[in-house]
Amino acid sequence: MRKLPKINTVVIKIGSSIIAGKDKIDKDFLSKLASVISEIRADIKNIVIVSSGAVAAGFKLLGFKSKPKDIADKQACAAVGQAKLIQYYEDAFKKYNLIVGQVLLVKDDFSNRKRYLNARTTIKRLLDMGVIPIINENDTVAVHELKYVETFGDNDNLSALVGGLLGADMLLILSDVDGLFDKNPLKYPDATLIKEVKFLNEDILNVAGESVSGVGTGGMKTKLVAARKALDSGCYVGIINGKDPYNVKRFLIGDEIGTFFSHVEDVKDKRKFWIAYAATPKGEIIIDNGAVRAISEMNGSLLPSGILDVSGKFGVGDVVKVVDIYGIEIARGKTRYSSSDVKKIKGVKSDKIDQILGFKIGDEVIHKDDLVLSKRKGV
């Protein structure tokens, strides 16, 4: 048996390849899932589901033979499919006296700090009332759609952000394979399942393949990138074969199935997770080598003297990327000055700020308490 931490809140991510078959939503899967959820509710108080499937469920209903590429067509499919999706969830779960609630989110709900906190309050209130939130991206109004910067990109990423938002104990990602293998199990019969990952580094990321189902957007690599975000929020992660919903219960009671990511960060400041992963950077601040060392090696703040240039337009309180002279991201942070003001004070000592701007918010452009190092690639 696998020793798991105490789980009060679990986020279960269900992809399109699991919930949507070739032609329609798999109602048998949802019925079995509802049964499993009703069983684990005795031990796990808060259960949140992040469910894909809206576009995959809708395109057949609108007469498309495959998922359309046109953005407006995709959004129409999402509108029709999301209605069907939540209807099937409701029908399956009410048999076990379980109430579900639909929560549709867009990237701005995470980027905007007030909306971020409001989303947390709303979802936690649903949980307090015994409701199981069914969360999905609102593809119908996500104007940049699934492949553009202002969307989550895939629901693996969304599930990790939801885990961080709620301070969840476990993110359980349902996949179409048994977990993470040392090589692609669909190509290599001798592939070996990795039962536990203690440190999710670049070597682990490099063994991941891509989506093969043709239904969803997220392959194993996107799951690992999402797992890394969740781990950084203090949330443990499991990846299991979701074709059989009973694997959810098996994993959560300690059966050694799937892959368990067992090392989480000790998160003392939840704001830093928001800065690192949830907020959309509004611009970039380019810094010199001395500032790179001060930030990355000495836990320092970003002072104007180390700033070389500014890219993009941002205001006070916006999150920006901090990059070196080669464009490599060093950190992300919440700036105390606007882009126009940073341009005026770049390269000068902090005691000159008031003289140049006519006011002074602080010595630092980004205080170290509002700065998060981008220690790994892909952040």
What does this structure look like?
Catalyzes the transfer of a phosphate group to glutamate to form L-glutamate 5-phosphate. InterPro entries: AceGlu_kinase-like_sf, Asp/Glu/Uridylate_kinase, G5K_ProB, Glu/AcGlu_kinase, Glu_5kinase, Glu_5kinase/COase_Synthase, Glutamate_5-kinase_CS, PUA. Residues 283-366 form the PUA domain. It catalyses: L-glutamate + ATP = L-glutamyl 5-phosphate + ADP. It is found in: Cytoplasm. The protein contains 14 helices and 13 strands. A hairpin with a 5-residue loop joins strand 11 (319-323) and strand 12. Helix 7 packs parallel to helix 9 (220-232). The protein has helices spanning 16-19, 27-40, 54-58, 71-94, 108-111, 113-128, 155-166, 202-205, 220-232, 246-252, 270-278, 289-296, 339-345, 353-357; strands at residues 9-14, 46-51, 100-105, 132-137, 170-175, 196-197, 236-241, 259-261, 283-287, 307-312, 319-323, 329-334, 371-373. The strands form two sheets. The protein has an eight-stranded mixed beta sheet, with helices on both faces. Helix content is 35%, strand content 17%. The protein folds into two domains: 9-272, 3-Layer(aba) Sandwich (Carbamate kinase); 281-373, PUA domain (Archaeosine Trna-guanine Transglycosylase, Chain: A, domain 4, Roll). With 379 residues, the protein is α/β, with parallel strands linked by helices.
